[in-house]
Design goal:
By secondary structure, this protein is mostly beta strands. Helix content is 0%, strand content 44%. The protein contains no helices and 17 strands. The strands form four sheets. Strands 13-17-16-15-14 form a five-stranded antiparallel beta sheet, with no helix packed on it. The protein has a four-stranded antiparallel beta sheet with strand order 1-2-3-4, with no helix packed on it. It has a four-stranded antiparallel beta sheet with strand order 5-6-7-8, with no helix packed on it. The two termini are 31 Å apart.
Length: 206
């Protein structure tokens, strides 16, 4: 609230519709919340006390998850059209949903090794971070991507004023864009925020 007191937005949720393991959250233009539940393998929309399930991983009659379906949603982003872009940690796929839950595959499972974060620029282009591979990738289609920042070479130096694909990223853990399409990368090893300008050059913010 305006006085900085927290509000429990789930206090009036119906029985059985609570969030067990909130693993990702984002806010829509009207203040609605989208929450990923890693335990329930679902995406929910919360607004004015009303809960709507956008997606839930299909299950068999016995309640077990159906093999091959995406599981463990973590990161959620909204694109400029209000569509929900979700990273599924279970299979590493990235999918897009509209308000009705209709699904579009943005990146196939297993294409990028252990994706940990995603970001969208102003053109709704998808970028994916792999902490394991120490790189950020630009997704061209559901089967194709290119390196955008970080290098797999032998260098372990975080360089500034070079192409982002020529600089080492120690342990990148989070990415996001600003309104000028600059990519920000949080790096745990160097305790720094790296910035990639639209021309592909990388610098250190702090």
């Amino acid at each position: 609230e305006n006085n900085l007191e927290p509000i429990n937005i789930m206090g009036n949720m119906p029985d059985g519709s609570g969030i067990d393991y909130p693993s990702g959250i984002c806010v829509g233009s009207s203040g609605e919340l989208y929450v990923a539940d890693k335990s329930k393998h679902s995406i929910s929309r919360l607004y004015k006390g009303i809960v709507k399930t956008i997606y839930s991983t299909p299950r068999s009659k016995d309640g077990s998850l159906i093999a091959g379906e995406p599981t463990a949603p973590t990161v959620i982003r909204l694109n400029s059209l209000g569509e929900i872009v979700v990273l599924f940690e279970g299979d590493g796929s990235i999918r897009k949903f509209n308000e009705r839950g209709n699904e579009t595959l943005l990146l196939q499972a297993g294409k990028i090794e252990q994706p940990t974060d995603i970001a969208l620029n102003s053109d709704n282009t998808l970028f994916v971070l792999s902490t394991q591979k120490q790189q950020v990738y630009k997704v061209k289609n559901d089967d194709e991507f290119v390196a955008y920042a970080g290098t797999q070479g032998t260098s372990t130096t975080a360089m500034d004023g070079v192409l982002a694909t020529e600089s080492f990223l120690g342990e990148p853990v989070s990415i996001d864009f600003d309104s000028s399409n600059r990519l920000y990368i949080a790096d745990n090893v160097f305790g720094s925020i790296r910035v990639v300008n639209p021309d592909g050059m990388i610098t250190t913010l702090t």
